[in-house]
Design goal:
By secondary structure, the chain is an alpha+beta fold. It folds into three domains: 4-85, 3-Layer(aba) Sandwich (Rossmann fold), CATH 3.40.50.20; 132-201, Dna Ligase, domain 1, CATH 3.30.1490.20; 207-448, ATP-grasp fold, B domain (D-amino Acid Aminotransferase, Chain A, domain 1), CATH 3.30.470. The chain has 15 helices and 20 strands. The protein has helices spanning 11-23, 40-44, 63-72, 89-97, 107-114, 116-125, 141-151, 177-192, 249-265, 296-303, 307-315, 394-407, 417-423, 427-430, 438-448, and strands at 4-7, 27-33, 47-52, 77-79, 101-102, 155-159, 169-171, 197-201, 207-216, 221-233, 236-242, 269-279, 282-289, 332-339, 351-352, 355-357, 364-368, 375-376, 383-391, 409-411. Helix 4 packs antiparallel against helix 5 (107-114). The longest helix is centred in the middle third of the chain and has 17 residues, at 249-265. It is globular and about 60 Å long. The termini are far apart.
């Protein structure tokens, strides 16, 4: 097992990783930018190293600075968390080249799944269903029109090298196609340095369902069930559930088995998540995230498995500590992502936190690095807290979530807590009757009264 782990991240996920390390008797090294010197993970870590100024490109994305920090502190391993360098194959490779263990998948697997076209081709070969569309990048407009006619409008143009909604265009009819491809390519080049785009059938009312997997790198892969991540605004997740209101045990087992068999043939290592669109009883591969997910706590709540601890153990060379037969799914969990934004128009709201009081009680978990007096910075993502609630049933979970959101007090900045309070009262959400387009319409109706 490792003696010391450097955490190459910040905020709540850095604190989450620190806690897992501390419970395992492992020392931690926090890296931080100049403006993050007072961050909670920095205060609690055994050691800390400043790696640069506020801009992420000069600190949390500064590979030489992070490697230097790991070297001078004699860290055995680096945990990248999510975001920043977590899916950077070059970073993973450099870490290993310096004799430091990268807590995550291999650089080859990160590179493969980071390329949207290559990953789609590969998983199709492995038997995972994909959305009908082009076999690769679309560069010839005449061929693009032929493909669109074959799969039927509307179609979706997507960037090969990235996600998050950038480089994405919906095309309703033939006359819009050429302009949409050009626009998507321009956006993709600006965001990812690569103008390659591909085409998929645009599903009308799908749900976004993902499968959490863990692999030992030697062909043993186990899934930890599904998460429903359909509540999204501008392709950014806002609330997640485990399990999905739209899926039963048979459906979960079926897609979980497909995912495990595919990744087993790749000898996949460590944690990963395969994301699907689900419509009319059919699953379609979207992408694979080769890292820890923001929403991993809901999986932990319904399985009782500490995903971060398992990541660390697998990276140290230990086998999976459980088999598929050992994994049981009990109760229901919901995570609300609390952002430092206006709940009306989503304007960022950085600044000092005056009052901070978290909810508590049975089945309530808060993953956050906030504290009274802390100042939310404008330089990074607006996610400041994850409120995770568990119940024996979905109804019990919802009732507990109502209560927890009422108890959660953050003053000095605006947050999206009021938005979550409204969402969980809506009859469609209460009935589990929603899809990936639902939240956009809900927000529009809420703003317009």
């Amino acid at each position: 097992m490792f003696d010391k782990i450097l955490i190459a991240n910040r905020g709540e996920i850095a604190l989450r990783i620190h806690r897992a390390c501390r419970e395992m008797g492992i020392k931690t090294v926090a890296v931080h930018s100049t403006v993050d010197a007072d961050a909670m993970h920095v205060r609690l870590a055994d050691e800390s190293v400043c790696i640069g100024p506020a801009p992420a490109i000069e600190s949390y994305l500064n590979i030489p600075a992070i490697i230097t920090a790991a070297t001078v502190t004699n860290a055995d391993a680096i945990h990248p968390g999510y975001g920043f360098l977590s899916e950077n194959a070059n970073f993973a490779s450099i870490v290993e080249e310096h004799g430091i263990c990268f807590i995550g998948p291999t650089a080859d697997h990160i590179a493969l799944m980071g390329d949207k076209i290559a990953s789609k081709t590969k998983v199709k070969e492995l038997g995972i269903p994909v959305v009908p569309g082009s076999d690769g990048a679309v560069r010839d407009i005449d061929r693009a029109k032929e493909i669109a006619e074959e799969i039927g409008y509307p179609v979706l143009i997507k960037a090969s090298a990235g996600g998050g909604g950038r480089g994405m265009q919906i095309v309703q009819e033939r006359s819009e196609l050429e302009t949409a491809i050009q626009k998507a390519g321009t956006e993709a080049l600006a965001a990812f340095g690569d103008d390659a785009v591909y085409m998929e059938k645009f599903l009308q009312k799908p749900r976004h369902i993902e499968i959490q997997v863990m692999g030992d790198g030697n062909g043993e892969v186990v899934h930890l069930g599904e998460r429903d991540c359909s509540l999204q605004r501008r392709h950014q997740k806002l609330l997640e559930e485990a399990g999905s209101p739209a899926l039963n045990a048979d459906g979960r087992d079926a897609i979980g088995d497909v995912a495990c068999k595919a990744l087993s043939s790749l000898n996949y290592r460590n944690a990963g998540t395969i994301e699907f669109l689900y419509e009319d009883g059919e699953f379609y591969f979207i992408e694979m995230n080769t890292r820890l997910q923001v929403e991993h706590p809901v999986t932990e709540m319904v399985t009782g498995i500490d995903v971060v601890r398992e990541q660390i153990k697998l990276a140290s060379g230990a086998p999976l500590s459980f088999s598929q037969e050992d994994v049981t799914f009990t109760g229901h969990a919901i995570e609300c992502r609390i952002n430092a934004e206006s709940s009306d128009d989503f304007t960022p709201s950085p600044g000092p936190v005056h009052t901070y009081h978290t909810p508590g009680g049975l089945g309530v978990r808060v993953d956050s690095a906030l504290y009274a007096g802390y100042s939310v910075l404008p330089h990074y993502d607006s996610l400041i807290s994850k409120l995770v609630v568990y119940g024996a049933s979905r109804n019990e979970c919802l009732m507990r979530l109502h209560r927890a959101l009422e108890e959660y007090v953050i003053t000095g900045i605006e947050t999206t807590i009021p938005l979550h309070q409204d969402i969980i009262k809506d009859p469609d959400f209460v009935n589990g009757d929603y899809n990936i387009h639902w939240l956009e319409k809900f927000v529009e109706g809420r703003i317009n009264g």
